[in-house]
Design a protein that fits this description.
Blueprint: H1 4-27, H2 43-56, H3 70-81, H4 84-105, H5 114-127, H6 132-144, H7 147-153
Helix pairs in contact: 2-3, 2-6, 3-6, 4-5
Amino acid sequence: MMQRREFISKTTKGAGLLICGSMFITANGCTDASKPFNELFTQKEVDLLNQLADVIIPETDSPGGKAAKVGEFIASVMKDCATEEEQSKFKKGLSLIDQRSKEISGNEFLDCTTSEQTNIAQQLDQEEKEYFPAVKSWIVSGYLTSEIGATQFLKYPQVPGRYDGCTAERPW
């Protein structure tokens, strides 16, 4: 018959081995860009969204879109909340961004310089009225709902007190 101390000792050692093994697997496998971020997006697509977010919302006195991890937000919300039609339309738009980037600069969007990326984004904004406005809208929503966007861009005052809805000061 196993005693309580012996049981605790054996289960603790087993749990420790299990945790160490899973940490080893996780630490050695998170660098491949073609690896899926989730069931819908690859890591490369998330990186493209982050870079595009940084072009649309660059770093100024507040951090930019990449720092707010807008790509991760979009990938998660798209997977969980969007319809299959919206998902396929959005993914098609992402592939068209890379396609247009290759036409304009000869490189994929992530391989372009910052000035080329800005030029490509401006051209897409002027020419593509079907999918690019939706991509921009998702990027802005992701940024404004992030901690960085809410606290550093919108200057959200985290001060307890009464709510005064009629103020002359705008949050942006």
